[in-house]
Amino acid sequence: MTIAGVSIILILGIINFILLLFQLVSGLHWIKVKIGVHKKTGLLLLIVATIHGLLGFLAHL
């Protein structure tokens, strides 16, 4: 499963890392965001991480 020659699993992993860093810096108040933004990106992180994990699992069956 690739997009332009790059694995979808790799792309989702990079997105997970970026979302995780955003959650960390906004949770520690290094950057100021509204709590609603923090909650929505946390939910997005959960969804993307779940898809990433499922695709990784299914790719190695």
Structural key phrases:
about 75% helix; mainly alpha; single chain; about 60 residues; two-stranded antiparallel sheet
Low-confidence stretches: none
How does the overall form come out from the CA principal axes?
Answer: elongated
Give the integer mean of the pLDDT values. 94
Order of helices and strands: EEHH
- Total number of helical segments? 2
Give the percentage of residues in beta strands.
5-15%
Query: For the terminal residues, how far apart are their CA atoms?
Result: 14 Å
Query: Could you estimate the helical fraction of the residues in percent?
Result: over 70%
Number of domains: 1
Strand order of the largest sheet: 1-2
Q: In total, how many beta strands?
A: 2
Radius of gyration: 14 Å
Structural class: mainly alpha
Main sheet overview = 2 strands, antiparallel
Written description of the protein model:
- It is a single chain.
- This protein has one domain (2-59).
- The chain contains two helices and two strands; from the N terminus they run ββαα.
- It has helices at residues 8-27, 35-59; strands at 2-3, 6-7.
- Strands 1-2 form a two-stranded antiparallel sheet.
- α1 (8-27) runs antiparallel to α2.
- The two termini are 14 Å apart.
- The mean pLDDT is 94.
